[in-house]
Design a protein that fits this description.
The structure is a homodimer. Chain A is an alpha/beta fold. Helix content of chain A is 26%, strand content 25%. Chain A has helices at 20-28, 44-49, 69-84, 104-113, 126-134, 154-157, 172-177, and strands spanning 4-9, 31-36, 58-62, 89-94, 117-121, 145-149, 163-167, 185-191, 199-203, 218-224. A five-stranded parallel sheet of chain A has the order 3-2-4-1-5, sandwiched between helices. Chain A has a five-stranded mixed sheet with strand order 6-7-10-8-9, with helices on one face. In chain A, strand 2 (31-36), helix 2 (44-49) and strand 3 (58-62) form a beta-alpha-beta unit. The interface between A and B is large, with 54 and 54 residues.
């Protein structure tokens, strides 16, 4: 059975945002498992690290972008089976950080249940890289922040939080529609942060063109404007 | 006047969690500014990087741990003045990430107003490193997360969020007192994550001993237990 599994966050698009520790572990493990969302499709996480791990044994794990938990379970279990049958130390990589909305967390849970030794190596998250790209801090002092996947309950929390992050949606435009009459907030949109085709925009809601930001690797940072 | 300022997140205690980019920039800049909270006290951020930057020109910036914004302003302006009078490229380092509750963000704002070229280099945040240390993901699927500095409004949001992070307080015990009767949550406490003297604890609120966690570099992760 597998000796140890490293869950490694490889950060965002800029491969220099990898940590020294992630690089060290990627170089020493016997195999690297890379997530793909569709057969034949490139792994974004692997694209970030591939220049560092030339010649390494790499195997794909399929995690399709579907919502049905019962169907997904089959894919997590397939992944578990592949990982368990290795004999040495392996890495499973993920974009961003492994603790924040990562597909890896499901396999992590299954591995834990099997008593496998696991070490998590954190990565740079898109929430921080996006704030940097926009040139604004996420939160200062005693400001409150929340992350609402798919914009859930945005119309409620818009009145209560200083900073709101909307992520995990392909349709930011629709999710932000609910607050379109608010002018006490500024909105930053970021797509594929630090990738070569990164796009950013910042302004009041009615000034923004969302067309180029309807992509799964996009997020919105909504910040209250202090009067 | 200073040519360019890098705001660099040096991550948590483990110096291997520095990014490749942070290391590259730290080695090339002409000077590194390091924050201290008191004259004569060591800079935690500098302790993380010092083995990498032997012989570099290093200067301290004093940011005392006080709350009075008017008094703090003087310190930010002193820092600004020191940075502006440099002639080359400099780095200002900060623990964690520069966009999340970082003292750097105030100097960042002043530098922006002066038209100085600024580049932010993200770092590993204690919120992710703490989840790793506890062995739990922060959020999965469509779970909502919020960060409440000093536990502000915890008694309200405990009913609405899947994961709540309480940070920026020296007194976690008092801040969590408000929810002590809840048994539908599990609480993870982490002090000085990835430092040599890291401490963690996880359990129901009434099982936890907070005594060792009343430290400014501590945080609590409160997670709803799914039935």
């Amino acid at each position: 059975m597998v000796k140890k599994v490293y869950g490694i966050g490889v950060g965002v698009g800029d491969k220099k945002l990898l940590t020294l520790k992630a690089l060290e572990v990627l170089k020493k493990v016997d195999k690297i498992f890379v997530p793909i969302s569709k057969e034949g499709k490139k792994s974004i996480a692997y694209e970030i690290i591939k220049d560092y791990v030339d010649g390494k044994d790499v195997e794909e794990l399929l995690f399709p972008m579907i919502k049905d938990k019962e169907k997904l379970k089959k894919y997590w279990e397939n992944a578990l089976e592949k990982v368990l049958k290795e004999e040495g130390e392996v890495a499973i990589i993920t974009i961003g950080d492994p603790t924040l909305y990562s597909t890896f967390s499901y396999v992590w849970k299954l591995l834990r249940e099997k008593g496998v030794e696991i070490e998590i190596i954190n990565g740079i998250s898109s929430i921080f890289a996006s704030a940097s790209a926009l040139g604004i801090p996420l939160v200062e002092g005693d400001e409150k922040l929340c992350i609402l996947p798919q914009g859930k309950d945005l119309e409620k929390y818009i009145n209560e939080f200083d900073t709101i992050i909307i992520m995990k949606t392909k349709n930011l435009k629709e999710k932000l529609e609910k607050i379109k009459d608010r002018d006490d907030y500024i909105v930053g949109l970021v797509k594929r942060v630090t990738f070569e085709d990164e796009k950013i925009a910042i302004g009041k809601l009615d000034e923004l063109n969302f067309d180029e930001f309807n992509d799964y690797l996009s997020l919105a940072i909504i910040k209250r404007v202090k009067k």
